[in-house]
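Letters spell out the chain; backbone shape is given numerically. Take this protein:
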Amino acid sequence: MLDKVAQCNGLFLPRECGGLLLVHGGAGSQDPRGAGHVAASKVIEGIAARGAKALAGGLSGLDVVRQILFDLECEPCFNAGLGAALQSDGQARLTAAVMSGQDQIFSGVMGLEGAIHPSTLALMLQGKSTRVVCPPGTAELARRAGLPAQSPITPERLIRWEQAKKEQRPHDFDTVGCVVVTADGQLFCGTSTGGRGFETPGRVSDAATVAGTYASKFAAVSATGIGEEIVDDGLGVRLESRVRDGLSLEQASAKCFDEATARQRDYGWIALTARGAWNASWTTEAMTFAGASARDGVFVSSLKLDAQPAS
């Protein structure tokens, strides 16, 4: 059943507000009034506020993505980095991707083990001739990057893994991500995840594909939810193509949302355009997210939706 608000739209002119960003902490089966959702939303608000402050301080768009993903991967309440979901063999294998819209360069890593910052490796691959890497290459990248060896596994995730094992079904869809537009209209995005949870070992998520993470000169998108459905629908590139072809972001998102609900999909996304139009949508019960501008700080979040009318 959908939460009473399942799409949000707005517009901030980047040159006037100094740039803006959206951050999400995942869409899935969660009580939008529950303590976990509220706590995660507060963390997202804080990370969005710090990202906006960095943007105001002159940090580049790609470095703002770097900061936001790093912070998200340090928070054990999300399915990324520390506290990531475990696959059916009890191991955490992490995936992340970033994309620069101005250069239209995508880079990502899949299946990272023994470290908590796959986004650091994805950013290392920007501009390289090889830009998407899976094991065993991820281990070599981590060594070259000087990533400290650190297990992503937390006691809370072990408990959830035991529950998933008992029920033989996944419990974790809460991927994290962000989209950023700078004051001069350059777009960037990034996504990081531990996957569905209790999936086949080695399963690859949508995050390190252009279905889940995509940016151009027209729009930037980061998706969350059931990765196979996101890939089946080509969500990121489909939404961007509709904006590129002349639809407003609100129109393009509404079309993608209608298609997703008709197909009974379980996913969500955040998106921005070069002109500062923004959108957050989800077909699940809830999605944690926040938006912030360099001038105004946090202007929207999943904590502030209760008083809004149904959409």
